[in-house]
Amino acid sequence: MITEDSRLLKGMKEEDNASFKAVYDKYAKALFFYAHNIIKDRAVCEDIIQEVFISLWSKRKSNTITSLKPYLFQAVKYQIFNHFRNNKFSKEDLTRLNIIDVSMNVSQKLEYSELDQIIRDYVAKLPKRCRHIFVLSRYQHKSNKEIAEELEISVQAVKNQISKALAFLRSNLQLEDAVFLCLVLLH
Q: 9, 12, 52, 110: which has the fewest C-beta neighbours closer than 10 Å?
């Protein structure tokens, strides 16, 4: 089945500017809000989103993207890591993140991957409905409202299930608060 995103990616490979604009229009706002929830600086977030889309366009012919939305959110996440790695932290950043060095060298990428797999294993142990809602929220980057509409439940029910999932993960993973926060928020 050919999805709209697959069609747009194909159009970009064929140098169709309209396809690129459609991808931008579809995802830029959500990516900006995702970045802004972590970095409370509008200009920095705009630069991050611009970098992600510049990279997407410049690599359009060689990309092997199979799922556009997760790819874009992952790209923003790495741009955020790079921002924190390359810039001095503001006092507000230090308070929010409790300073985490995410330099992402090969060893750290491996550690991150291992920790990510551990988290995914625990997510798999959540009750079915709770797991489904958590995955929609953290891995598919859907808003509480979108999840509520999709599952035909209240936004409060979504919030309750996400809180339940986070409490389960926190109690089982026993990670420092800052590390846990980054892993859960940046997914």
A: 110
Distance, in Å, from the CA atom of 163 to the CA atom of 52, rounded to the nearest integer, reads: 31
Q: How far is Cα 130 from Cα 123, in angstroms, rounded to an integer? A: 9
Domain ranges of the chain: 4-97, 106-185
- In angstroms, rounded to a whole number, what is the distance separating the alpha carbons of residues 77 and 40? 14
CA distances from 148 to 79, 131, 151 (A): 30, 14, 5
pLDDT digits (tens, 9 = 90+) for 86-121: 665 554 554 444 434 343 444 445 555 666 677 788
DSSP characters over 37-99 = TT---HHHHHHHHHHHHHHHHHTTTT---S-HHHHHHHHHHHHHHHHHHHSPPPHHHHHHH--
Question: pLDDT digit string (tens) for 128-180?
Answer: 999 999 888 877 778 889 999 999 999 999 999 988 988 887 777 655 444 45
Question: What is the second-level CATH architecture of the domain 106-185?
Answer: Orthogonal Bundle (1.10)
Q: Which among 97, 100, 68, 86 has a CA at the least distance from the CA of 4?
A: 68
CATH class for the domain made up of 4-97: mainly alpha
